[in-house]
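User: Assemble these into one structure.

Assistant: Restating your components, then the assembled model:
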Amino acid sequence: MKTEGRASERILLISYIIIALFSLLILRLWHLQILQGKEYRKLSEENMLRIVRIPAPRGIIYDRNGIPLVKNSPYFCASLIPENLKKVDVNALSGLLGINSNEVTEKISKKNLSPYEPIKLKERLTFKEIAAIEARQSDFPGLIIEVDISREYLYGNVGAHVIGYLGKLTPSQYKSPEFRDVPSEAFIGQWGAELLFDKSLRGTPGERIIEVDALGREIRLLQEKPSVKGEDLKMSIDINLQKAAEDAFAGRAGAVVALRPDTGEVLGLVSSPSFDPNLFARGISYKQWMELSQDKKLPMLNRALQSQYPPGSTFKIVTAIAAIEEGLINTETKVDCRGGINYGKWRFGCWRKEGHGAVSLHRALVESCDVFFYEAGRRLGIDRISDYAYKLGLGTSTGSGLGRERSGVMPNTKWKYEKKRQTWYLGETFNVAIGQGYVSATPIQMAQLMSTVANGGYIYRPTILKAETPPPPVGKADIKPETLEIVKRALWGVVNEPGGTGGAARLSTISVGGKTGTAQVVGIRKASHLLPEMFRDHAWFVAFAPTEKPEVALSVFVEHGGHGGGAAAPIAKLAIEGYFNNLKFKMQN
Amino acid sequence: MRIDRRLIKNFDWITFSLIILLTLIGIMTIYSATRPPLPGGEHPSYYIRQIYWLLLGVAALTLIVSFDYTWLGRFSYPLYITGIILLLLVLITGRTGMGAQRWLNMGPLSFQPSELFRLIFIIVISRYLSSVHGNIGIISMLRAFFILAFIPFLLLVRQPDLGTAMVLIIIFLSISLAKGLQKKIVALFIIIVAISIPFLGHIFWEGLKDYQKNRLVAFMEPEIDPSGIGYHINQSKVAIGSGGFLGKGYMNGTQGPLRFLPEKHTDFIFAVFAEEWGFWGSFFLLFVYLALILRGLDTTMKAKDEFGRFLAMGITFMFSVYFFVNVGMTLGVMPVVGIPLPFMSYGGTALLSNFIAAGIVINIRTRRFELFY
């Protein structure tokens, strides 16, 4: 019985050990379920809940006649949920998607990734690729196929500078609180109207809270907040005018700005050469971006706002108005042009060396006689010319807000003293009076000037929004209507009278008024077409139509185009024709 | 066959009820763990197969109880030879699954000989040690170790089925201790172990497959790589911990059906149960296991002979080791060793073998008074 007893003691000891081990398990259970229960409950929910963003369709942009300029097209992309990164075999994944494995590694090793926001690995999948990915999805946890919406610019290059484009957040935008709600992969407006009206175009993304399994596959939908489409935008642009003007450039560099004289609406804004905004909307590659930004023709420069050059003879409009208003010249005043005047040791020539003979104001504008305006300038003095130029909007930017806009230069004695600490010379007045020398303006300023002259002196701020109720003018140039009538009649003559320099803008159906201009690049008066292109003069043309009741006022600028009448006037003609053709088309419907 | 009325009167209804209860809880949990994540999806038939195996297990248990267990002692050596042959067959023709070669195909069924061999091993060790008089001497110990334990140990490590191999060694040592060892042997054993640990440790580590090494590393620091080797342990802890006090409710667990938890219906079934039933349910379940183990130890003390005592002890130890290692693993306090939870984990051979083992324990308790009649 002794061994029996010892055996029982041992069994009893074993029982105690078992009970002790059992108590340890219970303690551990208590620790996990009671003490850490809440944390683990959260972890299990994070395991299975996923928030998926539903992109909001962006508002559609229309031209003033309701023609859509952009389109939203859905596309598929293969994305990876960062949470599952560690489980992913990068080589196998890049093989499946057909992209470089370094590219995948680079994309998934970016810092500051939100753990739930999918990383787009490949965009614009074909249906074949989608099928291949879905078939092998179980091998790649976290690999999902997302639908996103891309922007398509229906007219490509046409209007790119004013419609704009979308792009990913720039590093500085990424830090800005304004874009805190924007997901890092999203596209937002970065240029033109897309940028200016981004907030209202953007819409509000929705979200889906879904339950997923361990492979990240959707099991069921728990909650859905639909996305709200962005507001549509009706632009003031007339795509027909825009396209006609842009096509007319045929690759030459320059700009056109066409305004509605009675509202300030921008009917067309061309900066040539342009770029294809679709490149940006698809996510521009580094190589494509370098090509664009290093192109010698500067396609990314908005010439309509940022090119400032001497306005040439188009400035004679200002000189004429100033001289009439000041009573220094009237319709009877005649100046004898002998091909130039002498002042001290310098000679100021007329573009027509043989001279115009005795010319009145009307003929001087029509034939663009320089000598007549030397005389007008001499009588006015620089400061009075400058005053009227400022009244008409030169020397300050138009405040369009379309982008960085340059303000041009409108010199006077004060300006010269502040800038150069020198006194003003009369010779400089001669130059300014015909739009050469220090004076310079941007195409949008010249268009605004034309618009102000055409509408009877009202200054409107250029806008690219189609206004339902016309906005009030921001100011009125204090100029007598009779004065403007005299000038407008002369501008009609420029285009329509024999000997007028702007004959190339003549239309049979609509009466066009305008003024040619040539900005000298080098100080030599020599037939421009004989010089190499980079030394050729810049061509200007400002115009308005119809002359009886103007609906469009525009400026055309052609870099190194030579004479305004030859290079710029035909573009104005095509643009105006485009605008009125579109109207005819509209009336027929 | 003579049906004794005393047999029915003395039948160990408690052990029987406990294992039936555990198996039913197991089937219920398998049903929940393998349910399709969406209503209307296909429900895998694991739980139905487990019901068939339960019925087969009850039949086998009844059969075992109706013969006196001393009969097992007489057939222990032929059983042992058969067991070894089966283990050899597995190595030669067995089916490979999950990195190990453990299954034998028998027509439509596949079965794991190592599950049955555990029992044969307990029977043969009990038979051998009960034949030794007094404390075990060096010769008997070495003979028992090399002939009875070492050969199957090697065969199991080759498969590899480290879990079962480890259980065999623990059972061998504990029954030997219960029998009583000469002090010399204890001393010698301690010296040998102390000297060989560095060598064995090296050989052991080098001999491990990569996934086995990973499991050990993961056990030490599961958070190092939550989606890699520590994944099992972390997801199991998430499942258990998220149950809280009351649990998420039956059929409301998410970790299993959504496949975050691997091996949800086999090795990690306790985690699924704990997620749905919470602390109170888990406490109850663990208590049922404790009752089963203590009942087995009680049977050990009441057995009519030494063979019966060793047999009951070996089987109870086996249940205990499986229970503690499995639950310890799911709770993250033991390394991941692929051994199932007795009676609850899905697996036909294991359930059948556990029912036979429980049958033997019931048999021993039922016939405890026979000596005195």
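The longest strand of chain A covers residues 70-80.
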